[in-house]
Amino acid sequence: MLLKRLVLGILTLVAISLLITLGVEALSGDVCTAMMGQMASAAKVAACHSQLNLNLPMHERYLTWLWNFMQGDLGNALTNHRSIASLIGNRIGNTFFLAGLAALVAVPLALTLGVIAALYRNSFFDRAISIVTLSGISVPDFFIAYILMAIFAVWLGVLPAISNLDQSMDLWDRIYISALPVLTLTVAVSAHMMRMTRAAIVSLLASPYIEMAKLKGIRPSRIIIKHALPNALSPIIQVVMLNLAWLVVGVVIVEVVFVYPGLGALMIDAVFLRDMPVVQATAMVFASVYVILNLLADILSMLSNPRLRHRN
Question: What span, in angstroms and rounded, lies between the C-alpha atoms of 194 and 105?
Answer without folding.
Answer: 13
